[in-house]
Every structure is written in structure tokens, then in C-alpha cells.
């Protein structure tokens, strides 16, 4: 079992090669990890490579706390420290109103009535 506060690198998945820290042990197989470029989530211990460094982590620490701990320890660079930002409601250019197509006015055609012969 890996100790809480152990610094690791991810060895599998889309976050492969990124530094993270163990925030919580779930069981012998899974832990909760987080880091500057690693989302806080459950991770299999087999997908982590331990580094010879441990940090003191408070219980219930967030991703921002983990990022700050790693930055203070000098394990991540400044550019790596910033997490991807979520889209915000930035001012977007106003959309131009779409003109609706006008209905064509049909000219009334002269409808000729056929005369039906009277029945005898």
C-alpha cells in the first residue's frame, strides 16, 4: 500500500508522464491522485510510478492544494502549474439576426370551372 502524500508519476492513460500526489487510499489497489495537470480522480496503483519524495497532505485536499504543494516543493515548473481553464462566459460578438425568407405572394390564377353536363 502506498502512503498518502507520496509523489508519483502517471504511467498510463492520457495523463501519462505527469506528476501527481496521492491524496487518499481507497484500498490496496486504488488511490485518489491529483496534480497540476492531473485531475483529481481514482487511479490504479499499477498505473503509478513512485518517486522518492513524500509531502504532508491534509485530509480532503483539493486539486489546487495538491498543485500548490508540488509547486512549493519545486517538483513542477510554473508553466506546468496552471491547470487547463474552463470556458467562461467571455463577451462574444453579438450574432447578427437572421432574416427570415419572405413568403412569395402567389398571384391568383383564374380558375376555370368546368361545366358538368346535367344528368337526365
UniProtKB/TrEMBL annotation:
Signal peptide boundaries = none
Where is the sequence biased in composition, kind Basic residues?
Answer: 110-120
Domain of life, per UniProt, equals Archaea
Region spans: Disordered: 75-120
Q: Which residues form a coiled coil?
A: none
Composition bias of kind Basic and acidic residues appears in 82-92, 99-109
- What is this protein's record name? 50S ribosomal protein L14e
